[in-house]
Amino acid sequence: MKVACAQFAHSGDREGSRDRAIEWMARAADEGADVIVFPELAFDFFFPQVRADARYFDWAEPIPGPTTKRFQEAAARHGLVTVINVFERAGPGRYYDASPVIDADGRLVGVSRMLHIAEEPGYNEKFYYWPGDTGWPVHLTSAGPIGVAICYDRHYPEHFRALALGGAELVVVPTATSTSEQAFRDIWELEIRAAAVANQIFVAVANRAGQDGELQFFGASFVAGPGGEVVARADGDGEQLLVAPVDRDRIEEVRRHVPFLRDLRYDLYGSAPR
Questions:
Q1: What is the CATH architecture of 2-269?
Q2: Measuring CA to CA, which residue among 169, 124, 177 is closest to residue 150?
Q3: What is the mean pLDDT of each run of 10 residues along the chain (274 residues)?
């Protein structure tokens, strides 16, 4: 199996960005990818950098909605399991940072909503987003069971553990991480590799690229394997389609030798995540 991380830069308008993203899907399919993941809010200006501007609520859309339906059609056309990220309007006054997961036949398998909501300079997310209410769904796709950790979710080991216990073999991380978050840059690979090895899964991180408003996104997308190894990483902070091999048999191999999940002791330290 191959997974593609689309290190993508917003190109000025939603329609143009979606058109380019669908072109990238064709490229990924040509390179043999089975799964593609796009960064957080890849098709829009990263509006959470603007503090408390209610006009941006007009940008939200339902799931399924115009963006999801376009990518469902493209996923079926190119035979790609596709994970995107949109600003979701779930009901009157209810808004989420959400990732639809689309199977290779175009079927909407499910939606993961960001559970942990940041609030810091450049990331004024608590004004715009409700805390996610989906829990930790594992989406059963033609490329295997996939979990999602959206941006800030990746800092919580419990998130990855819950997905792994739910059967996820690949966790994809759509993110929008910028040079303004130097503390996060310092632990960029460390925490993801730790999550991969602690749960003996693959983790694929797709970060935004380029300058968007006041934020410079640093790219550095990569894929980590179940032994903590880096399978592949992007070259730098520019746009890049990173296509990496994911050998799902490697999970079985690692877990036979180091059975971390078997040896969990929730009887000693509390209940398992649900």
A1: 4-Layer Sandwich (3.60)
A2: 177
A3: 97 93 98 98 98 98 98 98 98 98 98 97 97 98 98 97 98 96 87 98 98 95 98 95 97 96 88 59
